[in-house]
Amino acid sequence: MSIQTKAGAGLIGLCALYTVSAVAEISVSTRIDDTTGGDWRATYGSCYSVVPWAPRAVHNPEFEVGPDFEGDQPQQYVIPIEPPQDAFCISGAATDKFDFRIFTAGAPEPNPGHAFVWGFHDPNSGEQFAVLPGTPQWNACRGIFYPATYDSDMFDFDPLSGEIKLETGGSATVAFYFLSEADVCRSQDYRLFIDGNKVAEGNIKDLSVGKYLVFDIDGLPEGGSLIRLDTEQIADGNSLAFCQNQGSTFGLNSHLAGIFVDGTEACAPPGGITRTLGYWKTHPDVIDGSFDGDGGFESLLPLNFCGEEIAVACDAVKFLSQGGGGINNFKRQGMAALLNCEAFGCSSEISTLIADGSAACGAGTSFDFGGAGSTLDEFNNSGDDLALPFDSPSAQPHACSSLSPKQLKKLQKLESLDSLSKKQAKKLEKLLSKM
Question: What residues make up the domain containing 412?
């Protein structure tokens, strides 16, 4: 089974448990991803992500960040306390469009519950809590992989809750990452609420491998929504039986190691800006961010497309210069669309189409390359008339040419002519074939 999420990200061999529920016009599909592991960058969090960061245990009744958070828990549980330094790392394309909080709903007095940020590797204590290879999550603020979790450390005060406030409606993919020590069995019961209405519930087991609980949500109201996941360790029934059968240590506390949001209108391109393949082909300095101008990109690279790593701008230009129809048209339109998605954002439908075609192209399997190429051509032209958010440099149509300076001069002279003789046309064709 292959489920595509973001451009270039296919979850192959996904262990997926699907459930679908609905409240009013909202529909929710649930799946579990146990293959991505801690390197979420190509799969989740393009819009917004929160991961815990703590080189030691950090207690707080609540961790909260956002310009205008309003939770739906009773007021005594809303404790707006400035979080300790390094309690979490926030990243993504729309960090200013979301609020989040992590909290436990324990009795407020005299012993309130504590959200507990815990780094599994604690350099201060000297203890090393082993996690499996590939499960430490990427920390975009530090540029390292680090194993950490939010933990309801006071067992009687479950559930541990994670809330995300969305300002926009429509669709969203919200993924929650769970991680536990390699030698501790945990099985979490969960309940998902949207604006206070329960829309999904279930259980996620064996968290030592690092698992994402993923909700694909459609029909969110345009005024925005509050999405809350409650996780709780139940000390009886199926959860306890599962862990007892594993013959390993059993801990009652909940673990939540990251929240990731994709596919919302908050991450849509402002005004739907795009550029055609002709623009990208003649602006390699915009692709790699090397042009001298304000407001551009650092770089849109590296990218993966059709089984190849695009590490330099001229590699992208080669795809953009493909001739012919069918798969070749997909290669050039797909590369342009991928650059547009990286530069300005795009819908989940477009990113999925690029990812599916790229996977088939790289593997040499059948795919409707003609139809995909046409759809992506329309997309690449859809916002070409909208202003760029930066001053675009001049076109460089021959920047990636392999012609000698003498040949390039001849080419430029021929291209400057209003009309060509048959002999000149043949010379031009010959020079272009060498590029």
Answer: 401-435
